Automatic annotation (TrEMBL):
UniProt lineage: Bacteria, Bacillati, Bacillota, Clostridia, Eubacteriales
Keywords assigned by UniProt, alphabetized: Hydrolase, Metal-binding, tRNA processing, Zinc
Origin species: Desulfosporosinus metallidurans
Protein's job: Catalyzes the deamination of adenosine to inosine at the wobble position 34 of tRNA(Arg2).
One of the GO BP terms on file: tRNA wobble adenosine to inosine editing
Cofactor note: Binds 1 zinc ion per subunit.
Protein name as it appears in the record: tRNA-specific adenosine deaminase
Amino acid sequence: MLHQDWMHLALTQAQMAFEQGEVPIGAVVVHHGRVIAAAHNEREQKNDPTAHAEVLAIQRAAEVLGSWRLTEASLYVTLEPCPMCAGAIMQSRIKQVVYGAMDLKGGATGSVMNVLDYNLWNHKVDIVAGILEKECSDMLKLFFSRLR
């Protein structure tokens, strides 16, 4: 499968968040060519500021693999990860992050800053940006326009 195929699955998760009144961000973790975890934002539902799609997907993937080390996994997420999520990505040793839309206000993997690009860390993460960027961005714009 191509990056776009996996991102479509993350968009499906984002749509679920949208329908639940959550900021529509979705994530999937792919390991050896299969999805092992999927999640969407659940901050409102759980009243938990850490219940971001990425963090939930990473937790679920670690549970599936029985290990916190996700060294052979790729994370697909519809919006560029924030600093908290970038930290979780680094700590889980994810091999690759693929995201759709940039987050020009809080992105931490390329737009505002790149937490994962520093030479201080013991783990390097490959980053691919802009996959289905328009679709990911349009869903967020629609969500926030409806809030207003």
